[in-house]
Amino acid sequence: MLTMGSLFDGIGGFPLAAVRHGIVPLWASEIEPFPIEVTKHHFPGMIHVGDITKLNGAELPPVDIICGGSPCQDLSVAGARAGLAGERSGLFMEQVRIVKEMRDADIRDGQPALFVRPRWLCWENVPGAFSSGEPKGEDFRVVLEEICRIKCDSVSVPRPYSGRWESAGRILLGADFSLAWRVLDAQYWGVAQRRRRIFLVADFGGRTAPAILFERRRVPRYSPQGEGTRESAPAYAGIGIADTSGTAPNEADDDPDG
Question: How far is CA 82 from the centre of its chain?
Fold first, then answer.
């Protein structure tokens, strides 16, 4: 059975998704009192580990998946656009640090490469990340590069040839690392509002990331009475570290939340 840790947990969106798919949320990191009380009520068996800046990934209960939507205020087009240098959105680097620390601890303990935890990382944020930073879009390039460097610290991720990040894409490094991202809109999953977010998945032990985000049989979509508009998987292209953009239309600039 897969296990999960949730960073920047809020009121437990990732733990809720986990339990609905047979994944056990072992622990969560959150600092706001009210959301913590909400998740204690709904997930009484989940451990609350506190402030992410005070955590050591090597000392946390190891999990198969670490999820987190680092604060987006510095990336949103509605915000100050301070980017990853901002106090809140810069907390993304804490997520990277914790994943590295947990994986390094398993490696030191002699775990075979395929069983080093966490095997998967999931990051969620606003589409404004595609255009945040200087030059425009540099913050998303840094996000991709830092996640890739959890697996291989010598990797450099280039900017896309077009100069702009597409709404879907992937990176493959050999046979044992994959990363994919995709913009999803909550209106297609039964929420009565248009709320678009980037979802990024990294697999540190194989090539499952594109399948998780792009294969239709892996992504159940909401449709009342089996009818209505559905969100289909966008196309993506290419293999290799140089291919960091997809072929779907760019949607980064038309979302009031990002």
Answer: 20
